[in-house]
């Protein structure tokens, strides 16, 4: 009896090793791990694959996606945003499942005229439904250095983090009938494009094309504890349910504090408190 459960345990551990460890590599390589999906002539891979640069000019933006698709895990990317007069530019960094009822987790960086602050807009789509925007100012200039933008995604919740500091939580409230992204694997995407009809001061500040090309840079991608999905989402979910990382997913006290700190000092828009759009706050709002 004991040996059969030991065997079972070993098998699970072996599969976990295969699924989880295979996904985290110590150094990211943009040639190996990503594909260019928009305007290859405007995408540069530098330093033996350790950096990628997107560009936008008056004829096109550009974009890339990961070769792997992920379900759950900690997914990090370091990004340095378009410097100088970036008004009207949008750098979108997101997880996305290509399907009709798609899931999507968005970081959208809205540029600004020189010296004025970027806005970071986040959004969550689950089963095709979005309209869950939050907007905040950052506590640093995101164009001076690389900063780490992360998604920590497990069956209980999704945390958005900036340099390891949680800025947003989306709890799993399927129990209240709110959709949660856990049925579809998502790829990692980023695109740089012209959003000057809406992005900066609601569209008042247009792109100054004399400043083109606009450049955003990426490095140090990592997907740790992520389940790399090659079609079999179900198996990934089962493995995740067995995994130890499932056990300590309670939101830590300091995470609560940082969410409060961000809300109090940096948040400028929250769909949960937009009484015009949502006279009754959506049910998940009470838990996030
Ligand atoms: C785009 O920019 C290039 C370089 O500045 C310029 O030569 C060209 O005329 C511009 N094209 C359009 C359609 O504005
Ligand atoms: C740009 O700067 C203006 C003026 O400080 C500010 O109102 C706006 O929120 C900033 N960001 C964007 C993306 O519009
Ligand atoms: C991030 O990437 C840079 C080069 O692209 C490298 O020098 C640095 O060590 C990396 N940092 C981490 C934490 O992996």
TrEMBL record:
Its EC number is 2.4.1.207. Residues 1-26 form the signal peptide. The active site is at residues 104, 108. It comes from the Eukaryota. Contains at least one intrachain disulfide bond essential for its enzymatic activity. One of its GO terms (biological process) is cell wall organization. This is Xyloglucan endotransglucosylase/hydrolase. It comes from Equisetum fluviatile (Water horsetail).
């Amino acid at each position: 009896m004991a040996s059969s459960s030991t065997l079972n345990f070993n098998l699970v551990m072996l599969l976990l090793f295969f699924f989880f460890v295979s996904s985290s590599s110590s150094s990211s390589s943009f040639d190996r791990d990503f594909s260019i999906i928009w305007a290859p002539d405007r995408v540069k891979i530098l330093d033996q694959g350790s950096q990628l640069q997107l560009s936008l000019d008056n004829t096109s933006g550009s974009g890339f996606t990961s070769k792997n698709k992920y379900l759950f895990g900690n997914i990090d990317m370091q990004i340095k945003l378009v410097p100088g007069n970036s008004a009207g530019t949008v750098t979108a960094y997101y997880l996305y499942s290509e399907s009709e009822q798609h899931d999507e987790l968005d970081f959208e960086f809205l540029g600004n005229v020189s010296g004025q602050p970027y806005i970071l807009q986040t959004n969550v789509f689950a089963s095709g439904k979005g309209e869950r925007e939050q907007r905040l100012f950052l506590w640093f200039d995101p164009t001076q250095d690389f900063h780490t933008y992360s998604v920590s995604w497990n069956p209980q919740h999704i945390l958005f983090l900036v340099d390891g500091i949680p800025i947003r939580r989306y709890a799993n409230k399927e129990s209240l009938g709110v959709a949660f992204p856990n049925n579809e694997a998502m790829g990692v995407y980023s695109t740089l494009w012209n959003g000057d009809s809406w992005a900066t001061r609601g569209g008042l500040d247009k792109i100054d094309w004399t400043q083109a090309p606009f450049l955003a840079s990426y490095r140090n991608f990592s997907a740790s504890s992520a389940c790399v999905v090659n079609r079999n989402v179900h198996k990934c979910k089962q493995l995740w349910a067995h995994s130890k990382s499932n056990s300590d997913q309670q939101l830590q006290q300091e995470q609560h504090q940082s969410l409060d700190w961000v809300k109090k000092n940096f948040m400028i828009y929250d769909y949960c408190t937009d009484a015009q759009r949502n006279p009754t706050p959506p049910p998940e709002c009470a838990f996030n």
